[in-house]
What does this fold into?
Amino acid sequence: MKNKLTVIMIVVGIIGSSILAGAAFGDVDHIKNLNELKSEFESKKKKLNEMPNQTPEEIEATVKAGKELKDLGKEVAKVERIVDPDREEEFANQLRSYIAGMKDSVSELKHMAEETKDSQYLKKAEELEKKVARYEKEQRAYLNKEQPGKTVKELRKELDIPAN
It folds into this structure.
């Protein structure tokens, strides 16, 4: 068991140092690295799930392998941010979330306008409804690929949606 763990640690060290060295020299193909890291992450995850954890030594080895997997996951996330800084894969979900949040705010503002008889809430609700309509229009265009000239970066800037 300790031999397996030692081999895993050595492999992780070699891969990690090669990634860092390549990044330092600027000659790394980040997409290739990302794919390799993801496949390594999945294989380590599978091994972790298959590890026995009955004795204290096995539990300790499992915990250690889990920590290594977590570190590898962090490395995968770093490389993903380099490859896709605008987080294009998450953009559609994020846009849908923003629209849902604004719709909830509109209904809350209308409710407050009715409760307090204050027209200010109604004005804010109308302004927000216009913004929701604009976001929905952009969402439809993005999902249907109607606007080939607009990138996720441009849409994020126009709609003021930050990349997390």
About this structure: Residues 20-27 have pLDDT under 50 and may be disordered. The longest helix spans residues 88-116.
